[in-house]
Every structure is written in C-alpha cells, then in structure tokens.
Amino acid sequence: TSNDDESGVIHRKKFIGVKEYQSVDSRFYCAAVAPTRRFTLLGDCSTITLWNFTEAKPLEYNDSFTSDASVCDFTLDERYAVVGSKKGTIIVWNFDQNKTVATFKGHMNQCSAIGVPRDVESENLLASGSRDTNVKLWDMRSKKAAGTFKGHEELVTGVDISPDNQYIASSSLDGSVKVWDVCGGKCIKTFAASAVLGVKDICFNPAQYCVAAACGDRRIRYYDLNTFELISASHKDSTPCTKICFKADGSCLYAANTDNMKAYDLEANCVLDIVMKPHRKVLDLACGGDFIFVADHTNKSVIVSSVDERLLNFDQAVEISRSVSNAGSAAVKQTFYQKNSGSEPGESYGS
C-alpha cells in the first residue's frame, strides 16, 4: 500500500472524517453505524434520528420513547434499528417504513446493551442487557420475552448472540463474562475476565466457537468455548478498549479505544496494525463494505470516521512503525441538528 516503505515497515494509518453531527439544544447518548447502507443512527433526549452520510437533515425521526435513548444498533440486513432507553424499554424500528414494529418491556432499569443475530434468517431473535443486571432474549414473532438470564452482579455492558444462535455471551461491570445456553436457560460458564473496571464489550468470533472480551484492565482476552480455556490475553494498552468487532471472516479483531483502533491476531496474540484517531469516546465500531467505521462522541457532537479495510496490514511478520502516515487527512462535513425547529439544519466544513 501507499503506507509501506522500502524496508517493509507499515506506517500507522489515520481515520478519515466522514460526517459530524452537532446537536444545538440537547446531547447524543448513543450512536450506531450501518456500514453497507452508510447510515448513522443517533439517540438523544427521547428522539431517534436516522441520517445518511450526505444529507443535511435526518431521513427519519422516531419519538416513541418517554425517556432518553441509551443504546442502539442496526440489524444485520440494516433494515431495522433496535433502540433501548434509560427506562428499560426497547423498540424495533423499521425506518424504511418509519414504523415501530415491536416494543419490549421487561427490564427494570436502563437498557445498556443490545445484541442482534448474525444471519438474516434468525433475525426474529434479539438479546439485551440492563443496569438491572439481567440479560434477556426476545422473540420478534411473538413480541415477547423468550428468556431471562440472571447471574451478573452489576450493569451488563455487552451482549452477543453466537453464530448458531444457541448461546448468548454477556459482559458486565462486575468483571465477568458469562455464556448462556439459550434452550436450557442456564449459564454454562463464567470467566473472571477483569478485576479492574469490569468488562467493556463482548463479541463472538463469526468463524470459530470463541469469544473476545474487552477488559477494563486494558487487555483483550480471547476464550475457547469448546474447552472453556483462555487462548490469549493481549499486552496492556494505554487506555481500555471500549468497542470491539471481528473482521467478517473472523481472522482478526478490531478494538477501539479513545486514541486508536488496533487490529489483533488473537490466536498469535499480536497487533497487526494500528489506526490513529482523535482523543474521543467511542460509541460504535462497525465494519462492512470494505470499510471500518467508528462513531466518536465529544460534547454535543458525534463524529463518524472511516478507514479502508483493504489498506490494513494482516501479516504478522510486518513491523508497525511508530510514525503516522499523513495520508487520509480530510475535511469533515458538519451537520447541526436542532430538535423541534422548523428551520433546516445548517452545514459547514472544517478540518
């Protein structure tokens, strides 16, 4: 690539700014990116807005909540948005028709995590986690809870459904990772993953029966669910990773913190590449369509940035340079959003 030098050293890349969304009269609490359809989902005080990367105003609104949105995600086919609120209610929104197709109530406190299936045929399932410490499985067909899984002692930070839909993995501020049998309704394994600041996020490998955990002690831990053994624990990073996702083929894990995103080979326990970004809180990390997207939060704005996945290094033998390539600097298109305003949101461009 253009970031290689003659010695075979890979220079660190930088995320390119795609779009900045600024709220004039409120703040955004959650965000999600649909990498294929190039949509951004933003949640603020009781309103959900859907945006694309080019328009200056939202494509659709949803104001079904009576409390702040707390977490959101897209389904695999990017046709539906799943949004949880601080009161624990979860809605499923068909934004192409601008219609709420399901409302789930059952959590006694804030919905803090959402997990969607990895194949379109199983999109009738939905998992969630809450500040009430419970994990729930929901059936989209019956519009009812299909199971409640109790065992965590603090807020649930992440939930994910296994590729075969047989298991749910959950992470918590209590420092544990739990694996639940969907049919049996029981916890089949608890990993004491992090004694410091809990576990931030959890993700199944789409190609192997393994699960990765982003831990508060600044490490990524990778577990084999056939043997229930620890495969690897990464070296301590400068700051805790807060969002993780696997490459589509499961060959590496992307892990984002406030300063950068790293590509890990978890089997070899090594860093393959590093992509730098400005120091901001990460709300979402998603990959698809040859690009990796990160949604960052700062003050009253959400900034979506991207990097071309094809430019990353996946060769263990290649050294990563400490220098940063200048390739990829770009102006960020800004959209200013004011709730309940009859005026069109304005645009500006900044470096």
TrEMBL record:
Keyword match Repeat: yes
SUPFAM superfamilies (UniProt xref): WD40 repeat-like
Pfam families recorded: WD40
WD repeats: 104-148, 149-190
Record's keyword terms, sorted: Repeat, WD repeat
Protein name (record): Uncharacterized protein
Lineage: Eukaryota, Sar, Alveolata, Ciliophora, Intramacronucleata
